[in-house]
Amino acid sequence: MSDRVPMTKAGEAALRDELQKLKSEDRPRVIAAIADAREHGDLKENAEYHAAREQQSFIEGRIQEIEGKLSAAQVIDVASMENTGKVIFGTTVQLLNMDTDEQVTYQIVGEDEADIKAGKISISSPIARALVGKSEGDVVAIRVPSGTVEYEIEEVEYV
Asked: Are 65 and 58 contacting, i.e. CB atoms less than 8 angstroms apart?
C-alpha cells in the first residue's frame, strides 16, 4: 500500500496516549458540560451550550483524525535494526557544517512528529530528503533558502 505513513514507535505511542485521553477524559467531560448547559433552558441563547458543542465537535474530529493516522501508520523501530551507518527513517544523524564547524543533530521522523526545537525533522523536509540513503562520512550539499550548505555526516544512530 502506498498510502502508508511512516511513524516512529515514540510517535505512535504519543498518538495512542492522546487518543486514550480524548476518549476517556475529554469526551466524557464535554458530554457532561453539554448536559449541564441543557439544564439551563433556552439553547438558542445559551453560550455555554454552544461552546461545549463546539468543543465536542473538535474532540470528535481529532479522534477521527488520530484513528485515521494510526490505521495508516507504518511503525518503524530502527532500534531493532542493524546499524549499517546508513541514514534511514527514524535514525538520529549528527552533522557537521563544513563552513562553520557547527554540529547539529536531527532525528528523521514522520510528518506529525516533527519538532525542530527538539531536533526532530520530517522525512519530507529538504534536509531529511538529502540525507536519506547517505552514510557516515558522506558530505551532503543541502539547498536552503540562503543558498547551499554542506554537511558531513559524522554519526548515524539507530535508537
From this structure: no
Please check whether residues 45 and 55 belong to one and the same domain: yes
The boundaries of the domain holding residue 60 are 5-76
At 104-152, the pLDDT tens digits run 999 999 998 999 999 999 999 999 999 999 999 999 998 878 889 999 9
- Structural domain count of the chain: 2
> What is the tens place of the pLDDT at every residue in 35-64?
988 888 777 778 889 999 999 999 999 999
Same domain for 71 and 96? no
Count Cα atoms within 13 angstroms, Cβ side, for 100.
Answer: 6
SS3 140: strand
Torsion on CA atoms 12, 14, 19, 24, rounded to nearest 10 = 140
Q: What DSSP element (H or E) covers 87?
A: none
* Domain identity same for 95 and 106: yes
Q: Can you give the pTM of this predicted structure?
A: 0.81
The dihedral over CA atoms of 33, 36, 38, 40, expressed in degrees to the nearest 10, equals -130
Last residue of a domain, which of 43, 76, 109? 76
